[in-house]
Design a protein that fits this description.
298 residues, alpha/beta, Rossmann fold, 2 domains, eight-stranded mixed sheet, 8 strands, elongated, binds NADP nicotinamide-adenine-dinucleotide phosphate
Length: 298
């Protein structure tokens, strides 16, 4: 047994130096979490002078990073994290590929739908690449912690090792996803937050028809929304399902559909979700409800 206490300590690999490309919602939240986890962010890269660079500078000031528009600023970074919209990912990767030596670097993106192949131009230049998608929503002004957030990962072995360590360090839970599942996976995520938000916006329109303005509707709905999520977390979807469909109140559903004719988008959403409820959730008088919903189609 050695007397030297340092001989007992595990050898810690130094944390890689990170560069963030794109100071948008995801890029900003990620950079802050990485900083809190002890990572050094070397540079935040913007795509043009003006607004884009100003945003990068603001984020850079907050997390102690430089802001730049010249891709050569990425030279020292071990990990380059592309946080740009899906629609420009391939173009951005293409644009960065020729500008520096990528051998030994790790390039990551956080798109839910795109695979690591989107970073092929960087892979061809020597980078190891992966996609690292947090199942979380990031909007302007919110700072969700990444602790406990699941991250879906796929890509090259070396990039995956680096990404798994980073996800662990920010408190997330990394798991593997197959390339061919990514689009469906992202559709799932889109239901969980963006389309759920669209449902809330639709709900406000229905409240307006009942004489409740949007602001009051939002305030008054918060308790039932929070309880619904708590019930879902505690019991699952079937256990959290209440209302006229589970009770089989066919007349009530009929009357809802009638008044919702005045809000066609809400009527369509109601009917689509009611059909899903009949498929996936417990309900009394399923056949009568199904007939009612089908008759609405004609
Ligand atoms: N937001 C979320 O909830 C969320 C969750 C998980 C994953 N993601 C993923 O994160 C990525 C970014 O999404 P986001 O919601 O953060 O988008 P966003 O808020 O629109 O931010 C994108 C950022 O990229 C910048 N940008 C665009 N083209 C660029 C380029 N060629 N070089 C450098 N910067 C460039 C934009 O700058 P300008 O605004 O100045 O044009 C903007 O700051 C996407 O792949 C998305 O799928 C997002």
């Amino acid at each position: 047994m050695s007397d030297a206490p340092s001989a007992m300590l595990p050898v810690m690999a130094p944390k890689p130096l990170i560069a963030i490309v794109g100071a948008g919602n995801l890029g900003s939240a990620l950079a802050r979490s990485l900083r809190r986890a002890g990572y050094v962010i070397d540079v935040v890269l913007a795509h043009s002078p003006g607004k884009s660079l100003r945003k990068a500078k603001r984020l850079g000031n907050e997390i102690g990073a430089r802001a730049a528009i010249d891709p050569s600023a990425l030279e020292d970074a071990d990990v380059v994290w592309l946080c740009v919209p899906d629609s420009v990912m391939a173009h951005a990767a293409d644009g960065l590929a020729e500008k520096l030596d990528w051998s030994g670097k790790t390039a990551l993106h956080s798109s839910g739908a795109l695979t690591s192949d989107e970073l092929a131009p960087l892979r061809r230049r020597g980078a190891s690449v992966a996609s690292v998608h947090p199942l979380m929503t990031f909007v302007c002004g919110s700072r969700p912690p990444l602790a406990g957030v699941p991250f879906a990962l796929e890509g090259d072995a070396r990039a995956l090792r680096v990404a798994r360590q980073i996800v662990r360090d920010v408190g997330g839970n990394a798991y593997s996803i197959r390339k061919q599942d990514k689009v469906t996976y992202h559709a799932w995520g889109t239901f969980a937050s963006p389309l759920f938000t669209a449902l809330l916006a639709t709900t406000e329109q229905v409240a307006a028809r009942a004489g409740v303005n949007r602001k009051s509707a939002r305030r008054r709905m918060i308790p039932i929304l929070l309880q619904t999520l708590a019930n879902y977390a505690a019991f699952d979807a079937a256990g959290a399902f209440s209302g006229p469909i589970v009770r089989g109140d066919v007349d009530t559903v009929k009357r809802h559909l009638r008044v919702l004719r005045k809000v066609p988008a809400a009527e369509a959403a109601y009917a689509a979700l009611a059909r899903a409820a009949l498929l996936y959730l417990p309900a009394k008088k399923k056949n009568s409800l199904r007939k009612l919903l089908n008759s609405r189609l004609h």
